Amino acid sequence: MQAESSKRRPLLALLLVVAVGGLAALFFKDTLLGALARSRYPRIIVVSLDTLHVDYTGPYGDEVDYTPTLDGFAATGLTFDHAYTTVPITLPSHASLLTGRTPPDLGVMVNGDVLTTPVETLAEQLGRYGYRTGAVTSLGVLDEGTRIGQGFDHYDDDMGGEWERWYRTADEVVTAAQGWVEEVGDEPFFLWLHLSDPHEPYLEKGAPPDVRLTLDGNPTGEWNLTTKEEFRAALELPPGRHRVAWESLRRPRHDDYQYTSLVLDLVRFESTELEELPEPLTSEAWLYEPYSVELDNPGSAPVPVTVTFRGRTKSPPPSEVFAAYSAEVGYMDGWLGRFESFLTDRGLAEKTLWAVVSDHGEGLFRFGSIGHATYTQEDQLRIVWMLKGPGVPAGRRIANQPVLVEDVMPTLLDLVGLPSPDGVSGHSQVRCWRRDDCYAREEWWSYGANVYDERVTALAGYRWPYKLLWQNRRRTGLFDVSTDPFEQNELSGGGKDAAKLPREAARLQASLERNRRALQKRLEERGAGELSAEQIEMLRNLGYM
Questions:
Q1: Nearest alpha carbon to residue 465 among 387, 378, 346
Q2: Does residue 170 contact residue 113 with C-beta atoms inside 8 Å?
Q3: How far, in Å, CA of 470 to CA of 123, rounded?
Q4: Are 508 and 515 in contact (CB under 8 A)?
Q5: Contact assessment for residue 384 and residue 458, using Cβ atoms and an 8 Å cutoff
Q6: What is the value of pTM for the model shown?
Q7: Which residues pair with 398 in a beta bridge?
Q8: How far apart are CA 23 and CA 25, in angstroms?
Q9: Is 334:69 a contact under the CB 8 Å cutoff?
Q10: Do 322 and 254 reside in the same domain of the chain?
Q11: Furthest CA-CA distance within the chain
Q12: Contact 313, 262 (CB under 8 A)
């Protein structure tokens, strides 16, 4: 027995040496890969531009002159002409961007969900290979409670500002990002910079006020309700009965709708000295006649009263939305340009790898509605995706080849020379320019959803270049989006492709109901809890409810 035991010892020792050697080899391999990546790409920056319609950018649209920064990225980098998100909703689209996986796979289907699926993010993978990781976000739907910040050493989701709101503007985001970069110094870093100025509310920073608050006809201040911020005004209420009124400063437009107006979503009065004050209230829609509230001070001395309020523009007309949206895109582009100059001035621009990508687009009246989330037209699903840096050809465009938002992560890791984590369903598209051979999907589906009642409201099935569009139980339509980029001409099966169209349409139609049911089931079973009152208020103020 002793002899048999002594025979095993050399074998066990050999196995131990092999195991230790294997671990050491793996360690040194990872160390070498990280060192090579950090040497070639000491800085990796992903800029996500929220709610950016491709037509409102110079690289994708016609006669756009207010995006010089994006124009510069296209001129010095690579542009994917046909990039798509699989869902036009901020949180799940960003979850795909940062994990390389689809929303149904992650269980993050709508805003308000939480990333609970075990998954490695882009930040975790780059952090493992020696990068400092930081993120600065600009919408409340990406707060750290969603776990979208998994793997970041520094995650800045503080909306800040003097007044309560659920977003911050490009100047605030860029300033915060610059502070973090200054702190990191010369260390290799990965930064996710999230800008969302084109998102609702549509209003350029510094826009003129649209409402005046008065006390007994005397002005006390002016604000812009369209910002959807929460404002506070301190009033001195003399003895007696008084009238507090909000007067519209908004100028009528030629295309105002019948119901275009201003609305106060909240009015709340507070005073430590008055016992009887109106309960929190919401105004009726108003525009020309002031909206007023009566207050009574029964005492013999003036008392301080604080009025808190927020509001919005109801049914803004196209001319107002177009002007504000374009201005906000330009404002965002300008601050992105400032951030690029900031890096250049500090000698950090060289050897920096950039990915500029939008999470989804925006419906801007093409089909009679504005917004995203519940729609799957090309207006909402097409996204910007550009790359710039070492190893990326300058001025190159990838045309007539569809790529998806979940391809961003594996593409960046492949370009840097690092492996993708297990479970990634996206594909590296580096082959697009190295071998003129993009990874091609046979079929994929996108969906729109209503966060409030957990309902799939729209579907889009693609077998490139054909798209089957289904919208909330309405009839379906087939389009060739390579030649008809915004679904203006529904196909009937005629023309030179008559033999092909029925086959493509039949394949998509055959899988439509199966995909709708599967997505609806995943939406219902994803394990999300009920939205809190704060989440509901946030989603309402950002236009999702």
A1: 378
A2: no
A3: 36
A4: no
A5: no
A6: 0.90
A7: 80
A8: 5
A9: yes
A10: no
A11: 107
A12: yes
Peptide bond into 201 cis (omega under 30): yes
For residue 214, what are the β-bridge partners?
A: 219, 245
Residue type, 37: A
Nearest by Cα to 230 from 544, 545, 540:
540
- For residue 178, the SS3 value is helix
Whether residues 79 and 126 share a domain: the answer is yes
Q: Are residues 188 and 328 in the same domain?
A: yes
**DSSP string over 254-305:** TT--TT-EEEEEEEEEE-SS-S--PPPB-PPPBSSSPEEEEEEE-SSS-EEE
Cα angle vertex 20, ends 19, 25, to 5°? 100
For 200, how many CA atoms within 13 A lie in the half-sphere containing its CB?
Answer: 24
What is the rounded CA–CA span in Å between residue 163 and residue 159? Answer: 10
Residue 457 has pLDDT above 80, yes or no: yes
Domain that holds residue 271: 211-314
Same domain, 74 and 171: yes
Whether residue 55 lies inside any domain: the answer is yes
C-alpha 361/C-alpha 340 separation (Å) is 24
Strands (E), 389-544: 396-404, 444-450, 455-463, 466-471, 477-480
Secondary structure of 507-526 in the HEC alphabet? Answer: HHHHHHHHHHHHHHHHHHHC
Express each pLDDT in 317-368 by its tens digit.
999 999 999 999 999 999 999 999 999 999 999 999 999 999 999 999 998 8
- Of all helices (H) and strands (E), which one includes residue 356? strand 352-358
Q: Tell me: the pLDDT tens digits for 366-416?
A: 988 888 999 999 999 999 999 999 999 999 999 999 999 999 999 999 999
Cα radius of gyration (the chain): 27
**In this structure, are residues 205 and 331 in contact, taking their beta carbons and an 8 Å threshold?**
yes
pLDDT score at 535: 72
Tens of pLDDT, residue by residue over 14-35, are 455 445 555 555 556 678 888 9
Number of domains in the chain: 3
Predicted pLDDT at 102: 96
Supply 472's token pair: 């909330």
* 340/43 Cα distance (integer angstroms): 12
- The 10 Å Cβ neighbour count of residue 288 is 10
Q: Are the C-beta atoms of 43 and 352 separated by less than 8 Å?
A: yes
Rounded to 5 degrees, what angle do the CA atoms 400, 381, 87 make? 125
Specify whether 186 is located in the same domain as 65.
Answer: yes
Given the DSSP bridges, would you call strands 189-195 and 211-215 parallel, antiparallel or unpaired? unpaired
Cα 196 → chain centroid: 7
